Amino acid sequence: MEEHTRKKKATHEELFKGLKVEKVVIPLPEEDQICPVCGTQMVLIGEEYVRRELEFIPATCKVIEYYSQSYGCPSCKDGLGDTEKPVIVKSQVPAALVGKGPASASTIAWTMYQKYANGLPLYRQEKDWKQYGAQISRTTLANWIIYCSQNYFQPMYDYFHRELLKRSFAMADETRVQVLNEEGRRAQTQSFMWLFRSGEDGLPSIILYGYSPTRSGSHAREFLEGYSGYCILRVSRALFTDKLITCHGDLDH
Fold first, then answer.
1. How many C-beta atoms surround the C-beta of residue 19 within 10 A?
2. Which of 55, 58, 137, 200 would suit a FRET pair with 251, their CA atoms being 20 to 30 Å apart?
3. What is Dmax (Cα atoms) for the chain?
4. Distance CA 187, CA 181 (A)
5. Rounded Cα distance, 223 and 173, in Å
């Protein structure tokens, strides 16, 4: 019988690896730096490590106001140039990320991270922003996510989709999901989230998700249209390997 070995407890250095370390030295008060025996001024002879703490620094918000500068030609203004009109050139301010609203890249990135990585609903994020001093409604947060998804992420998704179809080996799987307030469907109705992944071919992995309101194979067939490699397709615990998927493939069964 093998002897049970207790797992080694991680050290603070391992737990906090990568975090910035700030050294705080607590000096001896001046009134205590006098020798209690002879009254001589004592001198520093060393320091000793005592303990460490993990400090949390809450997030802060600030407003950035952009101004453009205008430059005018004094010669043209005085009629000394080749034009009768004054020449004015303005500096170009970076375009807004979303329309003309106050959304910045960091603001939307944090909103998306909180919702999709940490599972924090927008109505709770709305309360957080209020505590930071910003009155941002959940509707505005949702509109920011939708706009960036359509205008920035969708082109990236389409690019990686085209790259995935060029691979010689791919994998696909479906998972049940529940969607609330979907138009024309009851909340109890089951929907499915498809995952498509490139194979282990030595190239960078490509992982894409695709939503389908039904479990019909039409979604996978549409996604893999034009694909001519091998695909492992997992549907409802049924595993099919080495099946050549083409635009004529039947994935409904």
1. 9
2. 200
3. 101
4. 6
5. 12
The span from the CA of 209 to the CA of 187, in Å, is 21
**Structure tokens belonging to residue 38:** 């002879």
**190 within 8 A of 212, measured Cβ to Cβ:** no
For residues 212 and 182, is the Cβ–Cβ distance under 8 A?
no
Local confidence band at 141 (pLDDT 50, 70, 90 cut-offs):
very high
Do strands 169-178 and 238-244 pair parallel, antiparallel, or not at all (unpaired)?
Answer: unpaired
In the block, which residue shows the tokens 């049940």?
176
**Domains of the chain, residue spans:** 166-244
Planar angle of CA 96, 97, 101, nearest 5 degrees: 65
Per-residue pLDDT at 86: 80
AA letter at 154: Q
Nearest partner of 22 among 50, 53, 57, judged by Cα: 53
> Which candidate, 232, 226, 109, places its Cα nearest to that of 161?
226
Phi, psi of 52 (to 5 degrees): -135, 155
Tens digit of each residue's pLDDT (9 = 90 or more) over 215-244: 777 888 888 888 888 888 765 544 444 344
